[in-house]
Amino acid sequence: MLADSLEELQKAGLQAAPAEHCYAGPGDVACDVCTGRKLKALKSCLVCLASYCEKHLQRHLQSAPLKKHKLVEPSEKLQENICSRHDEVMKMFCRTDQQCICYLCSLEEHKDHDTVSAAEERIERQRELGLRRQSIQERVQHTEKYVNLLQQKEKAVNVSADKAVVDSEKIFTELIHLLETRSSDVKQQIRSQQETEVSRVRELQERLKQITELKRKDHELQQLSDTKDHNQFLRNYPSLSPLSESTHSPSIRILPLKNFEDVTAAVSQVRGRLQDILSETETQILSLVDVLMPQPGPETRADFYWIQTQQTDISYYLRETEK
């Protein structure tokens, strides 16, 4: 019995209601033939100057005369493809005046101009578009290369600086208390140089952020390239913002990481020199320590001179260790 009911419905031409997403909403191109609540248009006809949903498009797909009509993606700007003077579809392009024209225009006011079909002009502009995109993509790749180098440079600077600080602190902790001040000075100098280097790297990174603009421009050109409507493509083409003159990415010189390592080497050399001095003067230092111990006052002029000489040697040594 259910089968009989379905058969009767089919004979009566009744069909299930379209899904909700099939209806035209804000921003959609609606079918010009639908009555009541309109469905989304599937194609627009440049000859009929109308848009059709899947159901009403069937005549254009089945009728021999209608099959010759030019179908494009749904558009609400079909009237812009019609010549306001001759009421004809503009299928040609005047290179002299840089505008779309109809066939009658090419025989009248554009008679002696350089005219071609819109499709032919589209091919040429499409080729130019491809070259521009290729240039942009090459610049993007070139810029990304330098961005990666800068990132590696920043990482290397930080690693080298941190290692230099650790090594310097280790060396200075082995020195006498008098050199702790110098340890702080060297650490501050390393951090200052690190900050300068990182600041320079980040400044260059900021200059290379034009990659974002290049990618945006590439996306804009991609959208234009995907336009199916020749006339709409040619209308929008002159409105493209000009591409900035190519500027070579700044020459980046990745210097050998010797700056901070040289600091570590210099501190090690100071330590070695101090150790050598202490080893060479160990006996002298012990004798000087003996002099510093309480001694009876000098009884003769010779004794007084000897004590003065020892005190002078001690003062000299202390000054040398402070340098």
UniProtKB/TrEMBL annotation:
Keywords: Metal-binding, Zinc, Zinc-finger. One of its GO terms (molecular function) is zinc ion binding. Pfam families: TRIM_CC, zf-B_box. Residues 78-118 form the B box-type domain. InterPro entries: E3_ubiq-ligase_TRIM/RNF, TRIM8/14/16/25/29/45/65_CC, Znf_B-box. This is B box-type domain-containing protein. PROSITE patterns: ZF_BBOX. It comes from Pleuronectes platessa (European plaice).
